[in-house]
TrEMBL record:
Descriptive protein name: JmjC domain-containing histone demethylation protein 1
Entry keywords, A to Z: Chromatin regulator, Dioxygenase, Iron, Metal-binding, Nucleus, Oxidoreductase, Transcription, Transcription regulation, Zinc, Zinc-finger
Enzyme Commission identifier(s): 1.14.11.27
One GO MF term: histone H3K36me/H3K36me2 demethylase activity
Function: Histone demethylase that specifically demethylates 'Lys-36' of histone H3, thereby playing a central role in histone code.
InterPro entries, alphabetized: JHD (IPR041070), JHDM1_Histone_Demethylase (IPR050690), JmjC_dom (IPR003347), Zinc_finger_PHD-type_CS (IPR019786), Znf_FYVE_PHD (IPR011011), Znf_PHD (IPR001965), Znf_PHD-finger (IPR019787)
Reaction equations catalysed: N(6),N(6)-dimethyl-L-lysyl(36)-[histone H3] + 2 2-oxoglutarate + 2 O2 = L-lysyl(36)-[histone H3] + 2 formaldehyde + 2 succinate + 2 CO2
Superkingdom field: Eukaryota
Domain JmjC: 278-438
Residue ranges occupied by any PHD-type domain in the UniProt entry: 73-130
């Protein structure tokens, strides 16, 4: 295809119509290759094309050959005549080939100032004039979260107008930006106890100005970017962002980046940024340890098997990042992949964060803005309720919770360490961001690695913990319910989806731990709801759930009717003894005996205040009992009561379990008042439901043994 041909290094480039046939020029290099010219080896001409990886291996440092610098063969169709254009090879060392006419050009002659390494498909001026539909395209950016890349401004590119890296910094000056009121905390206070006692914990960013007490390990303050290259490796590839275009610049190594970073700011050709250098498994990783709270919450640390996190094994490596940016760097609005939370420590320099709260309306605005023409022309802050600014200095650490939309400005050269982590305190928002990623078609390489597989590991561990009677806070149980909905949607894809959807869903199940994924997902959902007190064995009484994520389908069932299960076709007797079972591969334990006792009815007369006569009396309705008789200012009321009692029992190990469920229905009717008061008769019908459990004793042959179990 034209793209791969243009980007490879060619030892015998096609000569344009204006080239002299007398001499072989230096081999022009592709956008992906190094910018250093390679002399032609006539005795070993090599193949006409190489794969991009092979092309990079051919690139070697070579001295400039003076005999060829000013030769006629070193010109291109766009070179100007006259001595003013007789420049050194250094200024014309980058070549590019037109994808239409296949002619090679100096990027310095035919380009417009943009970085040649960011170009994906390119056409010369004459080919564009010949066919205006031909447009220049760019390579995708290095790393992004729940958004697609903005469309480059091709009009300005073709017109020779260079992108402005400081554009949004000037826009900010005229926008309403609020100073943050986020909490500043001591490192010793940031722990699991804080999460359990503070209902707002991990819902807003927090700043820890002094790292003492965080349980974190970082390099010394005199640690530099050169030290990063020494410990990680000078030849290690690194993804570099061109701030002006917010796109990736390939072909960089840590050694090359260090040379760029250490230059005087005035001598740097562009403003560049590194935000995705993951250092797990390197020498530097031994000197970086995330905060204690992060390690205690992180799903990868807690649930991914330690035996499958060794060297060379595939697992989510997102907890140790080294970020290096120069002054004026800007990272556009984004949400970290899968809505993951972030810890961020400033070792050197400074960072300015701009935050947007992840409300449903703000996330919807972000989804409309991301990856569209709005992204390059509209300040996202104009589409949301407010933007909050936070400035971090050396030694500061910040923890950013799930789903917060943010942009980052680097005012001075900076060195930062941070990482991403998923946790069990806001799974619903994490899954919402995953849904946005799917809707906006974020490429898989920019999503949280092995996300669904990690969710299965999490579900497996929580199921074992709940069965072992471990208790969890309501906030965790609410998150687990959202996780169950997601996994059940994966199960439905396995059972009812297309062949591709079935295959994809099954590939995400870690079969080393989970043998029956459908049973696990549905049993966990049932047990979570039971632990939260929102349902009983009868799944037919389950409360409505939030919209479940589906595997590429807008409907939960993928448009396929659900078949009736054998349990549903057995009739009402099965429902009475076992409850309606509406899922496969899991069946709650049934009751041996279920009996409804005779109904009891009675009518009494009491003195009680009429509902309309006391403000706020509604709060007292649920507290009324038989003691209401004789209330001051009360009127005579006729109360009809009906009592229904259901008793069910079943054998358990070592004894018997019994539930006694008593329901009381009341109807209150006040007597009419005198004509002067002109108040109509009022009826209040209330339903008071009281579930009571009783414990019974089963005697063994040798004596009396108490066996009891409380059932919620």
């Amino acid at each position: 295809m034209a793209r791969s041909k243009r980007r490879t290094t060619r030892l015998n480039p096609q000569k344009s119509r204006e080239r002299s046939p007398q001499l072989e020029p230096l081999s022009p290099l592709s956008a992906r290759s190094s910018l250093t010219p390679v002399p032609v080896l006539d005795e070993q001409p090599g193949p006409p094309e190489q794969a991009p990886e092979e092309a990079q291996e051919l690139v070697q440092e070579a001295p400039v050959q003076p005999a060829l610098v000013a030769s006629e063969e070193d010109t291109c169709p766009a070179c100007k005549d006259g001595p003013a254009d007789q420049q050194s090879t250094v200024s014309k060392e980058s070549w590019i080939r037109c994808d239409a006419c296949k002619s090679w050009y100096h990027w310095a002659c035919a380009g417009n100032g943009a970085d040649v390494d960011t170009i994906d498909k390119w056409y010369c001026k004459s080919c564009v004039l010949e066919k205006p539909s031909r447009t220049i395209t760019f390579k995708p950016p290095a790393r992004k979260s729940a958004r697609k890349r903005a469309q480059p401004d091709y009009v300005n590119l073709n017109a020779g107008v260079e992108a402005d890296p400081s554009r949004w910094l000037r826009v900010i000056q005229s926008k309403p930006i609020k100073d943050d009121e986020f909490r500043r905390m001591n490192g010793s206070d940031v722990g699991l106890e804080w999460l359990e006692i503070d209902e707002n914990a991990m819902k807003e960013p927090i700043v820890i100005e002094n790292p003492e007490g965080l349980g974190m390990k970082m390099p010394d303050t005199n640690f530099t970017v050169s030290d990063v290259a020494d410990m990680v490796g000078h030849e290690t590839p690194v993804e570099v962002i061109d701030v002006a275009t917010q796109s990736n610049t390939p072909g960089w190594t840590l050694g090359k980046w260090t040379e760029y970073y250490n230059k005087e700011p005035s001598t740097r050709d562009k403003v560049r940024n590194v935000i995705s250098l993951e250092i797990s498994g390197t020498l530097l990783a031994d000197r970086v340890l995330p905060p204690r709270l992060v390690r205690e919450l992180d799903w990868v640390d807690r649930f991914w098997p330690s035996t499958r996190r060794g060297k060379g094994q595939a697992y989510p490596k997102v907890q140790l990042y080294c970020l290096m940016g120069v002054a004026s760097a800007w990272t556009d609005w984004h949400v970290d992949f899968a809505g993951s939370s972030v810890y961020y420590h400033i070792l050197r320099g400074s960072k300015v964060f701009y935050f947007i709260r992840p409300t449903p309306a703000n996330l919807a605005a972000y989804e409309r803005w991301s990856g569209t023409e709005l992204q390059s022309s509209i300040w996202l802050g104009d589409m949301v309720d407010e933007v909050v600014k936070v400035t971090l200095y050396p030694g500061n650490t910040m923890i950013i919770p799930t789903g917060w939309i943010h942009a980052v400005h680097t005012p001075v050269d900076s060195l930062v360490f941070g990482g991403n982590f998923l946790h069990s305190y806001n799974v619903a928002t994490q899954l919402k961001v995953v849904e946005i990623e799917k809707t906006t078609r974020v490429p898989k390489k920019f999503r949280f690695p092995y996300f669904t597989k990690l969710c299965w590991y999490v579900a497996d561990k929580y199921l074992r913990d709940i069965k072992a009677k471990e208790e969890f806070s309501p906030r965790v149980l609410e998150s687990l319910e959202a996780l169950c909905s997601y996994l059940v949607s994966e199960v439905r894809a396995m059972e009812r989806g297309s062949e591709a959807a079935k295959r994809d869903a099954k590939e995400h199940v870690p079969t080393d731990r989970i043998k029956d994924a459908p049973a696990l997902a549905r049993e966990l959902r049932w047990r979570v709801r039971l632990a939260a007190g929102t349902t009983s064995d009868d799944e037919g009484n389950e409360r409505p759930l939030k919209k479940a994520l589906t595997n590429g389908s807008a409907s939960v069932n993928g448009g396929v009717k659900r078949k009736r299960s054998p349990m549903e076709m057995q009739g009402p007797e099965t429902e009475t003894s076992l409850g309606r079972v509406q899922f496969r591969n899991f069946q709650p334990k049934g009751w041996d005996v279920v009996e409804d006792l005779p109904k009891e009815e009675e009518t009494t007369t009491v003195q009680a205040v009429y509902p309309e006569e006391v403000v706020g009396l509604q709060q007292r309705w649920v507290k009324w009992d038989d003691g209401t008789s004789g209330e001051d200012g009360g009127r005579q009321a006729l109360v009809e009561r009906k009592r229904e009692i259901t008793v069910r029992a079943r054998k358990i190990d070592g004894g018997l379990e019994r539930q006694r469920i008593e329901r009381v229905f009341e109807r209150w009717e006040w007597s009419r008042v005198s004509d002067e008061e002109s108040v109509e008769k009022g009826d209040v019908e209330m339903k008071l439901e009281d579930d009571k459990e009783e414990e019974v004793t089963k005697k063994s042959q040798d004596g009396a043994t108490d066996g009891m179990e409380l059932v919620g």
